[in-house]
Design brief:
Oligomer: heterodimer
CATH class of the largest domain in chain A: Alpha Beta
Radius of gyration of chain B: 22 Å
Helix content of chain B: over 70%
Strand content of chain B: under 5%
CATH architecture of the largest domain in chain A: 3-Layer(aba) Sandwich
Structural class of chain B: mainly alpha
Structural class of chain A: alpha/beta
Number of strands of chain A: 14
Largest interface: A-B, 59 and 46 residues
Number of domains of chain A: 2
Shape of chain B: elongated
Order of helices and strands of chain A: EEEHEEHEHHHEHEHEEHEHEEHEH
Largest sheet of chain B: none
Distance between the termini of chain A: 37 Å
Number of helices of chain B: 13
Largest sheet of chain A: 6 strands, mixed
Strand order of the largest sheet of chain A: 6-7-8-3-9-10
Distance between the termini of chain B: 33 Å
Number of domains of chain B: 1
Strand content of chain A: 25-35%
């Protein structure tokens, strides 16, 4: 039996700017021990899904079960077995790292002594022993995130919800966070993880559900998703941008889709069915037309390519058309505070 | 890192204390934990404590020294007349803190954290209002001391004096629940402060706090006589023995100020406690 089940979840937010279907009939099923990645652009419905499952919001329609417990009927029982870490490190700045964790332990009703012991245990496991007695106020973003994640582990949860666990972190802290999460999952905790970084889903998740506009549009392992895009990509870099038009025609001849380009037309790329054969032919044709190359090669599709193919738009979701996650449950649009959120497009090359 | 989870082998058994500890004591313990957390905030942010201490001193000094010379109250010394008003104003404004702190917790995701824990949902609100009562009590002590320093005396005996202080704090506690709800609805700490000032300045100034209601223009006088803050001020003033002889008592709240305050407190709590708990159960960050 799957440990996380969601069936036909619908959540509609209405605001002055119109109605947003944050969830439009989303289904999800996660077996025990799996790290499931919810991958999708901003506003796809990832956060809303997690908030329904971790009892923070009620869907307008549909049902959800966590470890067989009906989330809507018995949220309090669900809360005892899950751990949840939100998009923003939810820590009390004025408490020390240890006190933050002790507070969480006490609210899990572990008792004061047991809570203290658990807090010390976690602070040590997260490599924060030295900083544990200092107020969180002075912590770096990465340290706060770690305390927040530790807070989600106080009750030794069997199911862990992580909503964009590395958003806003610098690359080094992000790698540290990945390591921590990987260690956790090695112990068999079931994790539902949301991310807009393809690289992150690739690195952490056993299985990925691609979410777009409130429903799951594709699922599978990272490799399966990449395979859905099929074949290879032939990539060439021209010496002279003026050759761009001619080179594009050559690529189009052997490609299974329209060629795409970047860098002022000097870099061209096309999806092909038979990689090596197509590359040979493209190179032969380009040489015949005296088009000089800086670089040429072939690569496997990335999750980025898969995402583009599946959703029809790039993974960074910067088009701003669908921002369901940014409307709060009362239907007000949230202030745009994304300056602090790196919105880099990351590819796995 | 096997200390982190015990996922595969464990059964979903709730912590053993869950069964042992009754619902009521769980509620008490949770309320206390959140209060403890909030009180830590007062301790750890000296700026907050500084203003909580300084603001009451400033108000007492400002009003008694600036207006003390100009405003004459028949049958009373202005400082004696003023003190109940300044106490009431300060504790009512003090409740604003509940709203701002609630909005701040929401913004920082702490409410989300609390709401995913198996704690009693009303404990967060209890903890909030409790710790603001503590903060208001600190302000109260400081104001009383400052009042004594500028010549204020209560003349009705110590028990009455204590009753007056208790009534002021009771009212501010009830008002904290209003602000707590407002904090969850408005959601931005800055807006809360501005909105509160828009409401609280008229509420405290169009009253008998600083001048006798009879000295106000007729429409304002009518408002002042029915204003619950006036009833609060009048109660405290009566209990402190600071009411001047010539005061006009021609409306129910001023005639029976203590009853009015109790009824007001009961109404506020009956309405706003359930509303706040309901709002909390469906409030989530951004």
């Amino acid at each position: 039996m799957p440990i996380i089940e969601a069936y036909d979840l619908v959540k509609i937010y209405s605001s002055r700017s119109g109605t947003v279907h944050a969830l439009a009939g989303l289904n999800l099923s996660v077996p025990e021990g799996r790290v499931e990645g919810l991958l999708g652009p901003n506003g796809a419905g990832k956060t809303t899904t997690v908030k329904v499952l971790n009892t923070l919001i009620k869907p307008d329609r549909g049902s959800a079960r966590v470890d067989g417990i009906d989330v809507l009927a018995d949220p309090q029982r669900v809360r005892r077995i899950i751990g949840a870490s939100g998009q923003y490190a939810a820590v009390d700045e004025n408490l020390t790292g240890l006190e933050n964790l002790e507070m969480v332990g006490r609210l899990y009703h572990l008792g004061v002594r047991q809570s203290r012991r658990r807090a010390a245990e976690l602070v040590e496991a997260f490599g924060l022993t030295a900083a544990g007695n200092r107020p969180v106020k002075g912590f770096s973003g990465g340290m706060r995130r770690r305390i927040d994640l530790a807070g989600a582990l106080v009750n030794k949860p069997r199911i862990l919800f992580l909503d964009e666990p590395t958003t806003g972190l610098d690359p080094r802290s992000r790698l540290g966070m990945w390591e921590t999460i990987s260690e956790l999952v090695r112990e068999g905790t079931t994790v539902l993880l949301t991310t807009q970084y393809l690289e992150e889903a690739d690195a952490l998740a056993d299985h990925i559900s691609v979410i777009d506009q409130g429903r799951v549009i594709a699922k599978g392992t990272a490799d399966e998703l990449k395979a859905q895009v099929g074949g290879h990509r032939v990539v060439v870099t021209l010496v002279d941008a003026a050759d761009s038009g001619a080179a594009r025609e050559v690529l189009a001849r052997y490609g299974s889709a329209e060629p795409s380009g970047a860098d002022g037309g000097r870099e061209l790329e096309v999806a092909v069915q038979q990689g090596p054969v197509a590359l040979q032919r493209v190179l032969a044709d380009l040489e015949q037309q005296d088009i000089r190359l800086h670089d040429a090669g072939m690569r496997r599709p990335t999750l980025d390519d898969a995402f583009l193919t599946l959703t029809g738009h790039p993974a960074d979701g910067a088009d701003g058309t669908d921002r369901a996650d940014e409307i709060d449950p009362d239907g007000r649009a949230k202030p745009t505070d994304h300056q602090d959120t790196p919105r880099r497009r990351e590819t796995v090359v | 890192m096997s200390t982190l989870t015990d996922a595969p082998s464990s059964t979903p058994s709730p912590p053993p204390q869950q069964e042992v500890v009754g619902a009521f004591s769980t509620w008490l313990a949770d309320g206390w934990t959140v209060t403890w957390r909030n009180l830590n905030k007062i301790k750890r942010s000296p700026d907050m404590l500084f203003f909580a201490v300084l603001q009451p001193i400033m108000f007492v000094l400002l009003f008694s020294q600036v207006y003390g010379g100009i405003i004459e109250i028949e049958g009373s010394d202005y400082t004696n007349f003023l003190m109940a008003g300044i106490f009431a104003q300060t504790v009512v404004f003090g409740s604003t803190f509940s709203g701002a702190a609630m909005a701040q917790d929401l913004k920082e995701g702490l409410i989300d954290r609390f709401r995913t824990l198996p704690m009693n949902p009303s404990a967060v609100l209890i903890g909030r209002t409790n710790s603001d009562l503590a903060l208001n009590s600190i302000s109260m002590v400081i104001m009383i001391a400052t009042g004594f320093a500028v010549g204020w005396r209560f003349t009705n005996g110590f028990p009455s004096f204590l009753a007056g202080v208790g009534l002021l704090l009771l009212f501010s506690y009830a008002f904290s629940w209003v602000m707590t709800l407002l904090g969850m609805v408005v959601r931005t700490p800055e807006t809360i402060n501005n909105a509160a000032f828009m409401i609280l300045f008229p509420l405290t100034f169009i009253s008998n706090a600083f001048v006798p209601a009879a000295s106000l223009p007729r429409p304002l006088e009518i408002f002042a006589n029915w204003n619950p803050v006036s009833a609060l001020v009048q109660s405290a003033r009566d209990l402190f023995g600071n009411t001047p002889d010539g005061i006009v008592r021609d409306t129910f709240p001023i005639e029976h100020p203590i009853v009015t305050v109790f009824v007001g407190v009961a109404v506020i709590l009956v309405v706003f406690v359930p509303l706040s708990i309901r709002q909390f159960a469906r409030t989530s960050s951004r």
